[in-house]
Amino acid sequence: MLRRPKPTDSEEDLLREQQRFLSSSALKRPDKRRGEEGTGDHEDPQEDPRDVVKMSDLPDEIPSLTPAPPKKSRFKKEHVRFEDDDPEDHLNRHDMHISAVLSRIIERDTSTVPVCLPVLTGTAFPKVMRRSHAAEQVSEKYIQILPNKLFVGGPLLVSGQGLGSSDAAQETMKIHQENQARLQEMSQEEILEEQRKLLHQLDPMLVDFVRSQKTRKLCGSPAGSSSTRNRRVEDQGASQKNAAHDQCAVDTAPVEKEMDVDMEEDVETEETTPQLITVEKKWVHMDKGENNAWQYFLTLHTCVCLCLRTHLPTHLGLHHHGEDPELAGYSLQELFLLSRSQVTQQRVLALSILANIITKAHAGAFASDLKGSILLTLLDAGLLFLLRFSLDDSVEGVMSAAIQAMRALLVSPGDEDALNTTFPWFLGMYCFPLLPTTKEEEDEEDEGIGEFTKETANEKEERKSDHDVARQDMVKGLLKMKLLPRLRYILEVVRPSPRVVLDMLELLVRIARHSTSTATQILDCPGLMETVMAEFLPISWAPPSSAVPSLYERPVAMAIKLLRVLGTAGRHICARLLNSLGGKERLSRLLVVEPQELMLETEEAFQCSTEAFRLWAVAASYGQSCSLYGDLYPVLVNALQSVNQSQMSTDHALLSLMLQRAQAILVLLTQVTHTAGCHEELQAGLVRTYSAICNSHSCIPGSELVPSLPGLGFFGEKTHPSLSDPASPFPLLTALCYLLNSVIAIHRGLITKVLCFTLWLQFKLIIRLSKYASLFHQVALVMLPSLQPGSEYMAHELMSVIIFNQDFIPECISGGPEAAALAELRLQEGFSTPQAPPLAPLLREVCLQLSSVRGCYLTHLAYCKPAVLSSRDTHLGRTPWVQSLLLPNLSLGPALPSDWPFLPLISLYERMGRSDGGGVQTDSLPAGSLVSVIYCLQWHLLLESWREGSLAMVPPVAKLARLACIFLSSSDLFLEPPVQRLMWALFGGLTRPAKLAGLDLTTPPPGLASFHDLYSALLDQFEAVSFGDELFGCFLLLPLQRRHSVTMRLAVFGEHVGLLRSLGVSVQKLPIPLENYILPPEDSLPLLWLYFRTLVMKSLRRAWCPVLYSVAVAHVNAFIFSQDPAPQVCITFATQDCRSNNCD
């Protein structure tokens, strides 16, 4: 038999097979005349190689004159006759007599066929299979076998009868497998293109006939209706180039056959099983609910995310898809492909699985199994655009799944719970905008353009693509993709289920927390807030119906929270919500009645009432809606009195809701009090709490954070108690004390009403202040660099009242200087600094000048005056001047830097130590600069001696760099006697063994590119103005230790050899052990060559630079007398180089 062409055949192979085919006996040239079996014309191929049909002879029959098309016989191809066809052979081939059949009997080889014996059981009859068990076993078995059935079937139209081989079935199957392999190599577009070509070449009537026969076969199968539907679903999925997902279709026909058994047992099961779904009359042939089937199909939607190393049994998961059939589950690429399927259920399933993956990634579930961030991988793959496009789907299920996934990506429930808990705290209503902290780079095309012709930030953002905007800020990217109008359409027209409505409201809350700009866009979106007000904050509503659950036309607590979050964005936005949109009337409707009378569920009623009071408190913080206080005064009194009655409740959930409502009322009364008094000198003395709600135990380890989507870091369940827990008593006590302090400060006549409480609290504070004054001072020092933007007034108060107050530094009175001197003697460990003065006199002088030191620091912080005044209005509750409850952006950094004690030195260095030419300015210092430097050094000495823990956030390399600013700021500032004494004392603290071990010069100091740049500037300054000062020399010798980088030693011996004549610090005066410079031996050949060169050329002498002379001699000797043969070559080369230089 002739061989079929292969894809790997060359052109020569094809021509060779063609020649074999033409020369074989199977090819007989038929007659060219239509419908006649006579002899044909045999033309010589040498004369004309083309197959030319000649019309010289006319047909014997006259063609029909009717316009109807000629009829075609189905069996005409079977009666084709060739020229030399023998009639006898033809009859023998088609003889169907019994003798012809029996003469060609071929016995099949059964030696390799396995024999399956029946399983022996101990029971007389088979075990009865119940319906639920049968369904589970049959479905599991069918799911495992289904993938093989999809690819074992042979061709549907080709029977193999025309093949000349004896085994036509085997050849047919081989042809079918080759076709299958070729189809798998082709893309979907190529398959469709070939299909179109084939249909164009075939007769349309023949195509219709084949399709009708296929449809008749499928429809004629009595038990194949379910499989036919599944096959059609698979065909639709295959059009999406998703063959792996099509295998997930579960054929229910075998299950139905097994379910027909034991109908009486099925009736009993249905009577005892609760109904999972309500059967409606309009459903055809579904008047009888099958709970077991529903339970089985519901388990299919339970998506569990597994790592690749998880070994899941084949009967518990999906294993028959993708390139790795042994792995369970879907890959991310398959999920993205499945989300674009034409089958609605597949799209919903893919989006639901993605939502679960995002939730688990936020909770840190993949931290131990995956390398890198799975959220960043999804976002880079286009997850945000996939979810946004899915919202435009016309199917409600797909929209709901997309909203669920988007809510999992954007919303952090832990952050919202923490913000709700901290609402009663001091300044708890204020929050930071959730803006990304990444700084955008300026466009290069803007360089050299005038200020008036540059594009604004909005114009640049409009010019950017959606992808660029979303990569930098996810919320802005969604707003640019018109998310708000789509959400309005879904809320108003689609009217989805309650869960989807709550997800959409949470999305709007998260968008409103982004910034004032996004809150304004929500308010300006046409019809969005009107729909929220009309549907979820109605003035009148009916009791909820249990038949059809819906959140429409009834109050929703999340909608009220949306108004509250929008109100925090600014006083003008809050006024629009209350007046233009009718929020004031709806607010009064929710406040005038008790929660039990709102005709809502108990939990929802209390949440609505609590959010209503919080919204009123936000409005009162701007001085708005305070007129309602007089009208609703009886309501507030009854609400406060009901708090005592709530203690009798045994329901902990209800008690928590009632306490939250009471806390919101206390916050409201505080804001109303501030508005009524509008005082300017309100002191929040009783409660001074920093409104930072995040702590080290709040963030879940391994939780994934996205730079374009910042948050507070509350994910998953908290395992450590904190002040932000709902069960913490801190919010209620804070709100109560803050209210009492505000009332007493405004109305002095009310002091007698709370006299007992006030006197007891003040007495306790006085006792604890005298006992724990040092602890309060340490807390204030640690708290000061942690204050975020918006707390400048609190920083000013801490520096004015506590930090520089001698009453909070008991060491100044109780022999602290003497104790510090004794501690210094114990810490020297044999290494003394002769130049360093004793610490006791220096510390006594600092204690006497603390008020002057405070004035120095407050003077250098004068640039923060506008921020301090704005922050004062917030902290003192001056409601008419409060513009927004959103604090400044966190990207601006903390209110004060962590190295704020060095602020006078940094300011002087920026004014005097820099110039355009790279040199050093030597002009005279500004007036008062010397005094400021002395105060700064004194305060730093006090902190290093008694409050060393307050400087833990400042690395040692930063301390060294800040102190080096004194040498770079002026040519003679470091020569002043007070500066010399303080610098020697501080340098002695830096050279302690523990401090030297922690000094890492490879880390760049804050504000500098590297420490090497600063050291190069110090070398230039030393050569210019040092006059051989030993203090300056010790600062230069500190980085030359063996453990630090060799680049600084190369800079001294290579580029600044001249300073070796004036670096006259002796070994005895060096406060650093000499072993730190000698051990281990130097291994840098360029540096050793420089050591040897300076010694031979006498550029380095013992009388000029004793320390570095000893270091160079020790390293050169160790190198010369080592066992390495390389030293002799290096020494010879260095000697020749030195001789050539001497000759020159």
From TrEMBL:
Annotated region described as Disordered, given as residue ranges: 1-88, 217-254, 442-467
Full protein name: RNA polymerase II associated protein 1
Localization (cell): Nucleus
Domain RPAP1 C-terminal positions: 310-361
Principal place of residence: nucleus
Chain intervals with Basic and acidic residues compositional bias: 1-19, 33-54, 452-467
Residue ranges of domain RPAP1/MINIYO-like TPR repeats in the record: 901-1126
Key words of the record: Nucleus, Transcription
InterPro entries registered for this protein in UniProt: ARM-type_fold (IPR016024), RPAP1/Rba50 (IPR039913), RPAP1_C (IPR013929), RPAP1_N (IPR013930), TPR_RPAP1/MINIYO-like (IPR057989)
SUPFAM superfamilies referenced in this protein's UniProt entry, alphabetically: ARM repeat (SSF48371)
Family from the record: Belongs to the RPAP1 family.
Keyword ATP-binding: no
A Pfam family assignment: TPR_RPAP1
Listed GO biological process terms: transcription by RNA polymerase II
Domain RPAP1 N-terminal: residue ranges: 174-214
